[in-house]
């Protein structure tokens, strides 16, 4: 390169989350202000193992323009290097002093390995990671949210409120599914905010195995309860994490030949979870003689690239400025985090990993008072409804919310 100014290299891994552009914009602005070149790398780590990587050099005007936009100005990739040869030239050519990665824990650990490899090649750079996930399942200090979660939830609430209004207007039911591989934070937040009469998240099954039949009976429990109250509409929210926690025999019952990822999880992005559940609910209602219309709604890719709300714009700004703060302090190999007082702290993967080196997902605390109060606001069959519910089902106890969740 003609210029030998110090530079910062930014790349994004995994899937989109609202606020990525806000982080990129902030990082670019604070480093440009300090005289650095800011280079963005398209296609994440894939470009680092490519002889001809596609790069984007930032100026203030581009950084300023993308700040509040959804999506990512840098093309993202889930590429994980294996035996490919790292292109070290880009670090030399651009005189890179800092690698900023935005993504999940896999992205962070890959960045650490690349930095260590570069040291063996006598190339010394720092690396700082900005963690993101709309699932909110990274165990950050103070139970602080991951950036993107609140924006995705806000968009989900907007869609959820519209769906609920349609249900009321049309006097029917919707079976809705929301993203969340390991944890039900999105489904819980959307359902609670929209006053849905039923939500089903994997954390609810802490005393019993998750089965499709139990999920279906929970939904029908709410439908019957509302019929007893002369309410003939509603929305039942189910977290996609239900499917990730099913046994293989339960997955096989669906009758769909799933593809599986490298961790052995069914690749649920290829199918509509709400459609599967809706068909199962309709089949069960036909079996017991309930004539009620239900329709599926999938909340997935609709949420990932929405515009970030004010909460995430503030959080992402803080994290972007925090990258510069940690770099100036000589920190490397860490994640940037902010505590409840807005103080920037370095967080290392070892701070989050268990004794086996795994990062356990942060789950919805179903034993908290908040969760208990939200569950109490749901509509479902309980013991006092048994006599009146017999007009719809012969054994109402099979649809008792609390009994279903303690079945063995």
Distance between the terminal alpha carbons, to the nearest Å?
A: 66 Å
CATH topology of the largest domain: Rossmann fold
Number of domains: 2
Beta-strand segment tally: 11
Strand content: 5-15%
Q: Major sheet, described briefly?
A: 7 strands, mixed
Which architecture of the largest domain per CATH?
Answer: 3-Layer(aba) Sandwich
**Counting H and I runs of at least 4 residues, what is the number of helices?**
17
Structural class: alpha/beta
Query: What is the residue-averaged pLDDT?
Result: 92
Rg estimate, integer Å = 24 Å
Q: Secondary-structure map with pairings?
A:
Elements: E1 7-12, H1 20-33, E2 37-41, H2 45-48, E3 55-58, H3 60-66, H4 89-93, E4 96-103, H5 105-120, E5 126-131, H6 149-170, E6 173-178, H7 185-194, E7 198-200, H8 212-228, E8 234-239, H9 241-244, H10 248-254, H11 273-288, E9 294-299, H12 301-304, H13 310-328, E10 334-338, E11 344-347, H14 349-352, H15 369-376, H16 386-389, H17 401-404
Parallel strand pairs: 1-2, 1-4, 4-5, 5-10, 6-8, 6-9, 7-8
Antiparallel strand pairs: 2-3, 10-11
């Amino acid at each position: 390169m003609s210029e030998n100014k110090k530079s910062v290299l930014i790349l994004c891994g995994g899937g989109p989350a609202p606020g990525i552009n806000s982080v990129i914009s902030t990082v670019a602005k604070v480093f440009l202000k300090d005289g650095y070149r800011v280079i963005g790398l398209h296609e994440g780590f894939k470009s680092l193992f490519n002889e001809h990587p596609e790069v984007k050099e930032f100026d203030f005007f581009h950084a300023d323009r993308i700040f509040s936009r959804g999506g990512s100005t840098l093309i993202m990739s889930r590429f994980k290097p294996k035996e490919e040869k790292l292109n070290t030239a880009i670090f030399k050519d651009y005189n890179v002093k800092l690698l900023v990665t935005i993504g999940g824990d896999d992205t962070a650990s890959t960045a650490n390995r690349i930095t260590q490899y570069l040291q063996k090649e006598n190339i010394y750079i720092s690396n700082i990671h900005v963690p993101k996930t709309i699932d909110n399942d990274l165990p950050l200090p103070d139970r602080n949210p991951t950036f993107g979660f609140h924006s995705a939830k806000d968009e989900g609430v907007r869609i959820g409120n519209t769906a609920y209004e349609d249900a009321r207007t049309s006097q029917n039911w919707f079976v809705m599914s929301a993203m969340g591989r390991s944890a039900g934070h999105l489904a819980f937040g959307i359902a609670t905010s929209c006053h849905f009469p039923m939500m089903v998240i994997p954390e609810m099954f802490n005393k019993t195995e998750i089965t499709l039949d139990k999920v279906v009976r929970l939904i029908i429990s709410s439908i019957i309860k509302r019929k007893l109250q002369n309410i003939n509409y509603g929305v039942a929210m189910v977290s996609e994490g239900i499917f990730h926690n099913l046994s293989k025999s339960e997955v096989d019952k669906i009758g769909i030949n799933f593809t599986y990822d490298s961790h052995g999880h069914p690749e649920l992005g290829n199918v509509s979870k709400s459609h599967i559940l809706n068909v199962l609910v309709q089949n069960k209602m036909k079996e017991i003689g309930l004539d009620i219309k239900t329709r599926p709604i999938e909340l997935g890719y609709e949420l990932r690239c929405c515009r970030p709300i004010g909460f995430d714009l503030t959080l992402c700004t803080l994290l972007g400025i925090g990258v510069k703060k940690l770099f100036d302090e000589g920190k490397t190999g860490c994640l940037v985090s902010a505590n409840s007082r807005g103080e920037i702290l370095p967080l290392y993967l070892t701070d989050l990993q268990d004794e086996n080196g795994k990062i356990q997902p942060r789950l919805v605390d179903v034993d908290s008072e908040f969760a208990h109060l939200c569950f109490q606001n749901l509509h479902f069959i309980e013991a006092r409804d048994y006599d009146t519910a017999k007009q719809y089902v012969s054994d109402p106890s099979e649809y008792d919310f609390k009994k279903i969740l303690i079945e063995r």
